[in-house]
Specification:
This protein is mostly helical. The chain has 3 domains: 133 residues, Orthogonal Bundle (Fumarase C, Chain B, domain 1); 222 residues, Fumarase C, Chain A, domain 2, CATH 1.20.200; 56 residues, Orthogonal Bundle (Ribonucleotide Reductase Protein R1, domain 1). Helix content is 58%, strand content 7%. It is built from 18 helices and 8 strands. It has a two-stranded antiparallel sheet. Strand 1 and strand 2 form a beta hairpin. Helix 3 crosses helix 4. It is elongated, with a radius of gyration of 31 Å.
């Protein structure tokens, strides 16, 4: 493979002739062979949208020659169409602020723009990565802008999938609305509920988590583009900030606004910690729900076995016939990862100093991973777990009939102390509370049936002492 010679402020280097990236990208690949994880396509595209908007805005204000702007925009459009993504080779763990990746973008776009105008890669005297593609920009304002765009774009998919998950729980809640079972508090037998009520409660938890996340995402609509290095807008036209945000709004279709205070927008990452916290809160709910599903599915002979999760694969390499709740287990693992990601984001957010927080790359790496994990898995979780759940009504009924806590419903009729005695005796004699009060002639069979009517047990009608 041939090479071309490129020069930067540190000297000259030989760059592969076919590469669209240049010398600064080459240095970054040598400096940061860290994880082997390259920028996600969604983030590449979000950053390219920033470059496209900047080229259009700089043309509007008369700073960028139209033919150069046209070539830059065309190069950007090719990348947005999925081309040249293999040329973005800077590791996610890189130089502070994301300068390495910004230059990777500048070089790829410049070299493709050169080709589109009939020139060779590396002829930067004609179209330059810094002077033209990066005109009126700094990594410090473009990188966090791209972060915001990317999260807003892919989070919409997450919101849609969370809504589908909510509906799946509602569907099962309606299916199980008459399946009466023992409730549990402290993991001990408690008053009756229906399986449907439990699943409806899960749907509400998902809705609340989704709604809260949606509200937090609005914080990211305020973009710092035009602030350049320290928030003063150095090296920009007075109209550039307004124009570039206008173009970016049109390109993305997002409701973007200019930063209230450009200096604050470079110093603080409060908005990112808030969104990451929303993802963590959602993960906590998903963990809790998954744990409930695993408990209710436990067995089949020594656990609760109140529900049956779909069998998706053999559960053991040594125990024949064993089937495990693997879909719920995977959801747990994903959510544990999201919680760890939030801790990384939190540490990065507090690491800002003076006019800049340089920890942008690790923030976007972790937030995007959290969203992508959920985007990838929620549809599978719905199809292969939630929608296929079956209730074991006989098992639920058998537990409830022996549940001493239903003696609580006797309180208004015979008092707390007498009800407690009945509960203890029923447990000792391994018989139902209903059977015991009839045996002892404390209540008539008709009274017992009225007291333990399903509508009353699940709170659908009020107490009746008659």
């Amino acid at each position: 493979m041939g090479t071309r010679t490129e020069k930067d402020s540190l000297g000259t280097r030989e760059v592969p002739e076919d590469a669209y990236y240049g010398i600064q990208t080459l240095r970054a690949t040598e400096n940061f062979p860290v994880s082997g994880i390259m920028p996600r396509p969604e983030f590449i595209n979000a950053y390219v949208m920033v470059k496209k908007a900047a080229a259009l805005a700089n043309t509007d204000v008369g700073w960028l020659e139209p033919y150069i702007a046209e070539a830059i925009v065309s190069a950007c459009d090719e990348v947005l169409a999925g081309k040249l993504h293999d040329q973005f080779v800077v590791d996610d763990f890189q130089a502070g602020a994301g300068t390495s990746f910004n230059m990777n973008l500048n070089e790829v776009i410049a070299n493709r723009a050169l080709e589109l105008t009939g020139h060779k890669k590396g002829e930067y005297q004609l179209i330059n990565p810094n002077d033209h593609v990066n005109m009126a920009q700094s990594t410090n304002d473009t990188y966090p802008t791209a972060m915001r765009l990317c999260i807003l774009i892919i989070a919409q998919d997450l919101l849609d999938k969370l809504e589908k998950l909510r509906r799946a729980f509602v569907k099962k809640g309606m299916e199980f609305e008459r399946v009466l079972k023992s409730g549990r508090t402290h993991l001990m037998d408690a008053l009756p509920v229906t399986l449907g009520q439990e699943f409806m409660a899960y749907s509400v938890a998902i809705r609340k988590g989704r709604d809260q996340l949606k509200e937090k995402l609005k914080l990211l609509e305020e973009v710092p583009l035009g602030a350049t290095a320290v928030g003063t807008g150095a090296n920009t036209h007075p109209d550039y900030h307004t124009q570039v945000v206008k173009h970016l709004r049109a390109i993305t279709g997002l409701n973007l606004i200019e930063a209230e205070d450009p200096r604050e927008s470079l110093q603080s990452r409060l908005d990112f910690s808030t969104v990451s916290g929303g993802l963590k809160a959602l993960a906590l709910e998903l963990i809790r729900i998954s744990n409930d599903l695993r408990l209710m599915n436990s067995g089949p002979t020594t656990g609760w076995a109140e529900i049956r999760l779909p069998a998706t694969q053999p559960g053991s390499s040594i125990m024949p016939g064993k089937v495990n709740p693997v879909m719920a287990e995977c959801m747990n693992m994903i959510c544990f990862q999201i919680m760890g990601n939030d801790l990384s984001v939190s540490m990065a957010v507090q690491a800002g100093q003076m006019e800049l927080n340089v920890m942008n790359p690790v923030m976007i790496h972790n937030i995007l991973e959290s969203i992508v994990l959920l985007n990838n898995y929620i549809p599978v979780f719905i199809d292969k777990c939630i929608l296929g759940i079956e209730a074991d009504e006989d098992k639920c009924r058998s537990y409830l009939e022996k549940n001493p806590s239903i003696a609580t419903f006797l309180d208004p009729h015979i008092g707390y102390m007498k009800s407690a005695e009945i509960a203890k005796e029923a447990l000792r004699r391994n018989m139902s509370v209903k059977e015991l009060v009839i045996e002892k002639r404390i209540l008539t069979p008709e009274q017992v049936e009225r007291i333990f009517d399903i509508e009353f047990l699940i709170g659908a009608k009020k107490s009746d002492k008659k």
